[in-house]
Amino acid sequence: MTAHFMTEATNAMNENEISELMNLWPALLHDLINTDYYLDLPDVSKWVVKSLQYNVLNGRKRRALTLIHAYKTLIPQEKLTNENIRLIRILGWCMELLQGFLLIVDDIQDKSQIRRNQPCWYLFDDIGLAAINDGFIIENTLYQILQLYFKEKEYYIDLVDLFHEYILRTTIGQCLDLLSTNFGKTANLDLFTMDRYSSIIKNKTAYYAFVLPVKLAMCAANMKDPELHRQVVTLLLDIGHFYQIQDDYLDCYGDTKIIGKNSTDIQEGKCTWLIVSALQRVTPEQRKILEECYGSQDLEKVRRVKNLYNDLDLPNVYSIYEKETYNLLMAHIQRLPSNLPQKLFFDLLGKIYHRKN
């Protein structure tokens, strides 16, 4: 009930903030393209604009919204000026650029087909592996923005360092994920332990999707206390863990039209919460089914895996996990020190609890 109330209460604010972000985008794009990098290169600048529009604009902007909401909550009211809000929205676009870059590369590596209800960029207009270069451009556009707008800020280097650190963590998590599936060839079910799974999602998802936007906001708000940063990281890693398990569940049981991508974790042989939980519960005969079927593109084998998940009552196991974890996270938030606003973290948790996409 609490989470539902929080989600409803923030919907209007999110819609307004997304509108403000979109209003800012044309000027931001103009500043990016009208630099020495693209001088006398009209073909390149036109292509970069096309790539940015396709890969950055259509997301749900969760990470940008998290950063902006965190900043507005953390900063003293008297410093919440129009210019500071403008800058934090620009920083929010940096988060969306990071997300766009990571998704381009991830889709190529996973051979995914659909992203955000449209063909993955590498499949669009027969772009193919040239999309890798577009990913590099989008990543570096992030640093271009930081230099254009934040170079004179005392926290500029902190922002750059945070992006470098969390991009590295994310690519390390992606490496561990790829190693677990033998680079998309054959899933090694012996590697699919809960410890390994937790390491993958901590590095691949939790750090950049949850920790990074809040730490960026803390830097911009001049919050430097290492203990506060430590407590924020600990909590947000747990929330990020919760989020990724939801993602794994939705990949199998969610509505493709709502989540905006095909359900492919089984076909790709991914190390997910569902397969790890299944392996903890299977009989020897059931494990043989997984060994034969998991990681196959054959739709009949995919169906057999899903049936096995149902036989093991994993939807109910997930439902219990979701409720218990939510309660534990709520208790964790309530124990935060007084100089960390509980509302920020209640809001973050409320936005993802019982989510459908």
UniProtKB/TrEMBL annotation:
GO terms for molecular function: (2E,6E)-farnesyl diphosphate synthase activity; dimethylallyltranstransferase activity; metal ion binding. It comes from the Eukaryota. PROSITE patterns: POLYPRENYL_SYNTHASE_2. Keywords: Isoprene biosynthesis, Magnesium, Metal-binding, Transferase. It holds the Pfam family polyprenyl_synt. GO terms for biological process: farnesyl diphosphate biosynthetic process; pheromone biosynthetic process. Its cofactor is Mg(2+). InterPro entries: FPS1-like, Isoprenoid_synthase_dom_sf, Polyprenyl_synt, Polyprenyl_synt_CS. One of its GO terms (cellular component) is cytoplasm. Pathway: Pheromone biosynthesis. PANTHER family: FARNESYL PYROPHOSPHATE SYNTHASE, FARNESYL-PYROPHOSPHATE SYNTHETASE. Belongs to the FPP/GGPP synthase family. This is Farnesyl pyrophosphate synthase. It comes from Vespula germanica (German yellow jacket). The lineage of its organism: Eukaryota, Metazoa, Ecdysozoa, Arthropoda, Hexapoda.
